[in-house]
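In this supplementary section we document a worked example of the pipeline. Step one takes a protein sequence of length 346 as its only input; no multiple sequence alignment statistics are reported here. Step two produces a three-dimensional model, which step three serialises into structure tokens for compact storage. The input and output of this example are shown verbatim.
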Amino acid sequence: MSQLKILASHGTGNVAAILPDTVSSTRYVEFDAPYLKKSMEDAGLKSSQIVIQNAQGSDATEYSDAQADITSGAKVLIMDPLDSGVGSRIESYANAHHVPVIDYDRLTLGGSRKYYVSFNNVYVGTLLGNGLVSCIKAWGVKSPQVMVMHGAVTDNNATLFAQGYDAVLAPYFKNGTYKDVANPAGTWTPDVALTEFEAAYTAHPNINAVLMPNDENGAPIIHYLQTRHIKADTFPVTGQDATLTGLQNIISGYQCGTVYKPIYLEAQAAVALAMYLRAGLTPPSALVNGTVKDIDTGVEVPSILLTPEWVTASTIQSTVVKDGFVPASQICAGSFASDCTKYGIS
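The serialised model returned by step three reads:
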């Protein structure tokens, strides 16, 4: 971080971060905002130079926040768009005012950002697919009847996740080892995901495995299966984001695993990149380690792509707990204490 402090001395003005905080997720409030703030402070920025805002799920708020930040002297904008429509508007406005934009976590399709910082989202999908395959084998699922669920169709990350897990599962469907039973349209809203699952499960009660792209959508489905007296370690469900509920579902035998993305690394990478841009310098290739194609424009966007991890019950202690992402005291509360003892989580 000492290098970032040196770079900070060359620039003036603010670094602004705008996060979506969609209704269905508290990730940005609980994790990204604090990590971004700490990374900015570690980079040598004063509190008066740091602006982190919460759009509260509103396109209009996200756009007005960006305008206000630029008017107030922001030199770099780190932005996670609620959707590509508002993201493109923000980036157009920023470009007109000569303020570089970093797409954070989610790429703005059709946008004009300078850089993109995220995890390797195709690999996230690959981990989900391989996780389901491993779990089906370990749990002894016979004649796997698989429901493949997706994230919101408007989210490019969901598209990239699907590329990864579809590629893993395709050979199993093609050779008849698994049957591809249902593929709903996709959502990031848990109650909508539950409705989609219930409809498919009613029509196809033989479904016995679900590729689920995140923990939050999986949670109500797992609860529904429990009300149907489905036993632990018999009906694989995948997940992503290493949420508290997801981790508890894993150790109790109702979720195969979760894709853990160390968000503090994503925040550090975004701020490191922002400091180079703020100083008017070109970031080194050691930092900008890849590209992601904007499928709307065909542009290959220079990107920092971080590596996610597949976490199971036996690796929660060495990953999520070790990093302080979710404390063991929360995971092991109440009835989950014995599960934590079983897997050495403390």
